[in-house]
Amino acid sequence: MKNQSYWKTHYVLETDADEIERNLRQANFVSDGRRFVLPYFAKDKHAPNILISEGSGGHSYVFAELAYQMHLRGYNVFIMPKHGGYTVNQLLARHVDALKYISNDFNEHIGIFSEGLGGYVVFYLALAQGAMKSIVCQNSPAIMTGKEYQQALVTES
Predict the structure, then answer these.
(1) Which residues form the domain of 92?
(2) For 136, phi and psi rounded to 5 degrees?
(3) How far is residue 95 from each of residues 46, 85, 152, measured CA to CA in Å?
(4) Nearest-CA neighbor of 47 among 122, 99, 108?
(5) Edge-to-edge order in the sheet of strand 25-31
(6) Domain count across the chain
């Protein structure tokens, strides 16, 4: 992000942006040989975790206020790095690696909130038995002719 404070004046509507920033932490994880920054709000190591996966055009900090509000309600909340410019397979691998980081450093109780491209990736991650316990996919496309999608419609889990 070129202007590091842009998110504070454009994406924070109801919460004090400085309060959000004071509580925001950053972790690093490696995926496909690259290091990625994972912004997060930590409650404690035993609290349930939420991973937010944004759409193709959104920067992590677009979801800073939402993440902080969920954190205030008792969750560790992590926000995926920007998705644009990567293939779906690269994003699937990156989500797997982010989930491993969260499981190893916090715990395995992880739900994912996703939208747009993030929801598309998370849906297929769920079909592949990803390491999350639940998913929410908002405004997310699906390729309804895909074999995995069609099988999910007719198979009980």
Answers:
(1) 7-154
(2) -125, 125
(3) 21, 15, 20
(4) 108
(5) 25-31, 34-41, 76-79, 49-53, 110-115, 134-138
(6) 1
Residues in the chain with pLDDT values less than 70? 1-2, 142-146, 148-157
Tokens 């996966």 -> residue: 53
What ranges in 12-116 are assigned the alpha helix state H?
17-23, 64-72, 88-105
Tokens encoding 69: 């509000």
Amino acid at 22: R
Q: Give Cβ neighbours of residue 41 (< 8 Å, ≥ 6 apart).
A: 23, 24, 25, 67, 68, 70, 71, 76, 77
- Indicate the length of the chain as a whole number: 157
157 burial type by CB count under 10 A (0-12 exposed, 13-18 middle, 19+ buried) = exposed
What confidence tens digit (pLDDT) does each residue in 107-123 have? 999 999 999 889 989 98
**What's 38's domain CATH number?**
3.40.50.1820
**Is this structure's pTM higher than 0.85?**
yes
